[in-house]
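Appendix B. One record, verbatim.
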Amino acid sequence: MTVLRYLKYLFLVVVALALVLMAMANREIVTLEVIPPDLAAWFGIQYGIELPLFLVILGGVVVGVLVGFVWEWLREHRHRAEAKTQKRNAQALEREVNTLKGPARDSQDEILAIVDGPRAGR
């Protein structure tokens, strides 16, 4: 178990080192524009922000991961709803079984309790 923990830490260190190296290699400033310059001149709106390139790259990765998580969460909604329904049905059946068994039938066999059920009420 400890070997896997060390491998996980080693992997995280390698990823962190790769991210630092990528950030150091891509420090130049780039301008992000919301609308292409020709279209912005036509609308009279020109909005741009200057950021280091590594922030643009990492921001794109983070946005992509978040979109993927949301997409997967929405896709799995059907499965979560079905599991919730199945859990509710199982709880209802468990309550019904407990009601049918009853406290007086705890010592009886289940088959005998079902067979003797109508007679016990007479």
